[in-house]
Amino acid sequence: MELKDYQKAVNYIKSKIGSIQPRLAIVLGSGLGVLTEDFENLITIKYSDIPSFPVSTVSGHVGELLIGTINDVPIIAMNGRFHYYEGYSLEEVTFPIRVFHLLGIKNLLLTNASGGINLNFKAGDFMVINDQLSFFAESALRGKNLDEFGVRFPSMSQIYDKGFSEKLFNIINNLTGHAQSGVYAYMKGPAYETPAEIRALRILGADAVGMSTVPEAIVAKHCGMTVTGVSCITNMASGIEQKDLSHEDVNDTADKVKYIFKTIIKEYIKLF
Ligand code: HPA
User: Fold this and answer.
1) Ligand 1 centroid to 149 CA: how many Å?
2) What does the alpha-carbon distance between residue 39 and residue 45 come to, in Å, rounded to a whole number?
3) Would you say 101 and 218 are in contact if contact means Cβ atoms under 8 Å apart?
4) Residues 155-184: pLDDT tens digits?
5) Taking phi first (over 0 means left), then psi (-120 to 50 degrees means alpha), and beta for anything else, what does residue 69 get?
6) Residue 53 vs residues 38, 78, 93, 142, 246: alpha-carbon distances, Å
7) In terms of CATH architecture, what is 3-257?
8) Residue nearest to atom 6 of ligand 1 (CA)
9) Which of 104, 191, 192, 239 is the most buried (most CB within 10 A)?
10) Ligand 1 pocket, mutate which of 193, 197, 247 (most atoms under 8 A from CB)
11) pLDDT greater than 90 at residue 30
12) Would you say the pTM of this structure is higher than 0.70?
């Protein structure tokens, strides 16, 4: 991928949204498609119509950009993200983030579903991501550095913006009474982790585990965006409870909390 590939996507999106300048980009995790209901002046753009955008291989998978205003704030949201486990390269997984940057968007909110590793967590909790682990995965910045986006060796000493993360934490606390914050560990999936991997991740300092977000956060930080992240703890991680993990359980929890999750996001949007 070269700068001109990103530029083609940007030009196409600009041709659809005109002079609208989104102030925040949001990547919607499982269940959060319900945010679609709350847009005013909604413009949707299918990923498959955007030049150079990764093509969705999964049938029935939503894949569209949502542009419009919520609480009078112009935003752009990804309804459906690309995961490494689906077979996309990390360059493809993070392609939209660089497009957002080139669209002039300075702030990014990443949302996801994850498994709770911290034993004080329970399914249905929300965790503000304050740092991340990705020891076992290649970096999304591997390969030739595109200097237009950022430096070869970017600092990751503070990926998640402290000020906005604190505000997000307070919003969650006000709405639920028990906000969590912690470290998100990235695993490549698609299999859920083993109990031994979860014990190891706990020793390494992880509070939650999931299969997204980390590549996007690194690429956003590389190009100077302000990043925040929130994880819906949909289940306790492998081995903590005496049962198998299932995608159905993950979806069930995500579904149960989607309206409160949406309320959190809508409150957060007011900051921009
Ligand atoms: N592990 C990895 N990814 C996840 C999990 C999990 O337990 N729950 C939701 N996404």
Assistant:
1) 31
2) 14
3) no
4) 999 999 999 999 999 999 999 999 999 999
5) beta
6) 25, 12, 10, 19, 30
7) 3-Layer(aba) Sandwich (3.40)
8) 115
9) 192
10) 193
11) no
12) yes
